[in-house]
Sequence to fold (355 residues):
Amino acid sequence: MLLVTGGAGFIGANFVLSTLAETGEPIVNLDKLTYAGNLRSLASIAADARHTFVRGDIADRPLVARLLAEHRPRAIVHFAAESHVDRSIHGPAEFIRTNVVGTFCLLEEARAYWEKLPGAERDAFRFLHVSTDEVYGSLGPDDPPFRETTPYAPNSPYAASKAGADHMVRAYHHTYGLPTLTTNCSNNYGPLQFPEKLIPLMIARALADEPLPVYGDGQNVRDWLYVLDHCRAVRTVLERGRPGETYNIGGGAERRNIDVVREICALLDEARPRRTGPYSALIRFVADRPGHDRRYAMDAGKIRRELGWTPAETFESGLAKTVRWYLDNQAWVNEVTSGAYRDWIERNYAKRGAA
Fold:
């Protein structure tokens, strides 16, 4: 039995679905169902007895304690987080509450539970914390990729809140001996991603024949990781990672944002041609966001050497699968793009002038 937090969000839902499909291990899924949590993402397992969904907050310590006592999981896999940089700029308080305070509450209850486990169960228990490459800051064009030893230098409220959570997890291992594992991943993409992130946002707006807003000059570089490769990496770290260690997970696919958008346009041109010309004609450069990190890149050598994980998808194969999924699942997109989401898009993009 696993306790998964944030299992109705993008990465969490993919992890729940792929873990049930590949291992069959029962999962208790704790999710607050904020704007990015969507039970429709889990519709295929709604009647699956191996999946128990609980709506709740990781900062609700009595609830977490009850779930641990009742289900006795062998591990906690902690995805729950506020994760959108722009939202953290507009309203950082919720990021501190969820990512720092929420992680602290979860760690406290995990420690209390772990300390009472009998010997073999205590030795086998793991607390796996899923984090981000953004804690490391920004790279110059010729800088080597981030390694697990790269000093932290977060540049946004979101990144700072995740850095704080990472430090708490590390401290609980070194102070109390809690068998923790931390993974820092690069930009994920794939099915079920809430359409305010770059790739699904561009797909959704292109299909609606709306402008495709690209921050600044579009030269910001990210290392792209297909979400199911990430889920497989998390399972690998959970099973074979060394307690107290951190593992970077990257797709080895650095791309400029503008090139990603152009690749999406090309795939859509082929799959669903636009009557009035190529989708790339919709691209618009808009004013950059504050403190926009220029480049991220991950050195995933440690997880490859020690645990044998490598990504199965190239960026080209993963992006083609992603575009096809969104084309085939417009009902899911229409449901998650509620009025609240539309208000967010209006506030974040409509008032930005041309770059």
User: Anything to note?
Assistant: The mean pLDDT is 93. The domain at 2-192+224-254+295-314 is CATH 3.40.50.720 (Rossmann fold). The first strand starts at residue 2 and ends at 5. The chain is about 45% helix and 15% strand.
